[in-house]
Amino acid sequence: MSRVRRLLPLLGCVLLGGVLLTLYAPGGLLRRDEPPPTPVGWSPYDLAGSIEAAQTHLRRHPDDAAVWASLGNMYLEQARRTTDAAYYDKAQGAFERSLRRPTGDGEPYIDAVIGMGALANARHDFAGAVGWAERARKAAPFRWALYGVLTDAHLELGQYEQAETTLRRMLNGRPDLASFTRAARLEHLRGRPGPARDLLRRACAIPGDPTEYAFCQGQLGELAWNNGDPRTALAAYTQALAADPEHAPARAGKARAEAALGNTDQALRDYATAVARAPSFVVEYGELLEHLGDEDGARRQYAVFTAQQKLNADNLAMGTFEANHGNADTAVRYLKAEWKRRRSVEVADALGWALHRAGHSAEAAAYAVRADALGGRNALFAYHRGEIEHALGHSAAARTHLTRALSINPHFSPAGAARARALLAEKP
């Protein structure tokens, strides 16, 4: 299973959760018992139309800080839906225009401050996101959006206790879709899929627009997939697409589940549709093509990924790709640089795997143990640890972790699952 794909659920929480919350109440502090007013210029049903309407308004009223902040959040949502990083620069410009117009008490417009934090998370500047969120907390401690930004940043920095404390404050203040989906993420990291599922179902039951419902169902699909249940995952992804046919993560998830269930032709069609809408799934699509023997098709998808990264370099994504499909030493350089920035379980696992692929399995073992211990029930982490133990000659430990990987999700990766079975079939 591609690391690029596995990062999307958390990236979805960062972007969608941040957007949903940072659109609260232009002006004034949002107290626990205050309902969020309708955001300025925002309609999730017609995002392009809302952006156009906001732009038209701002041509006539260029000093409207509230609409500039809402426009910045709309651009963030466009980035989430399209995976087009160009919208990040547009969002930054809108937030900066909003920040130039202080509120009546002389403070910067608080939605723009929180929006800058959400933008920093989206750009993987997690330390910067903490700074923006803390600035917002000093000015408006009851604006619950800022705690979502903080939770996401702490998670990515590997600061799990801080993330849990911050999220508890957010849940106490405003239990809603954004806080429930983050809580589900933490439960999954603890290896507790049952509570995670309950939280996601509560989120899905909250009245909202089709995009929000599709997001929730997509997260339920991810949870089912990660726990080795492709049929339930397929049903959830299908519900997500019924609500929002343009939801690319659900389309890719549907393809993944179909491939696991043997419906390869439909899986390939759905992958092609998904990558046309969101090119971030090209590596996953390429890995299936490669597994099916279509080397040329896989290379074309990998070339698309490489071209993307030239425009929007991501150390974690590039390091993972190089470890699996390129130069392992290059992968180690990317991932050691990323480890200096953040120490999440995702980066620990990726760095351990890259070191192993580069022939440094003894060094890799410490990172694999860290990721596996903190990463909950994760088949890919268990598989990587099993491979590293095998390379070190620890046969019993290797079999334990490889068996565990397949028991969590026997479909976690076309190539990885096949390799795990082959190693287990070897005589001890």
TrEMBL record:
Domain of life: Bacteria
Matching Pfam families: TPR_16
InterPro entries xrefs: TPR-like_helical_dom_sf, TPR_rpt
PANTHER family cross-referenced by the UniProt entry: CELL DIVISION CYCLE 16,23,27, CELL DIVISION CYCLE PROTEIN 27 HOMOLOG
Protein name (record): Tetratricopeptide repeat-containing protein
Taxonomic source organism: Nonomuraea solani
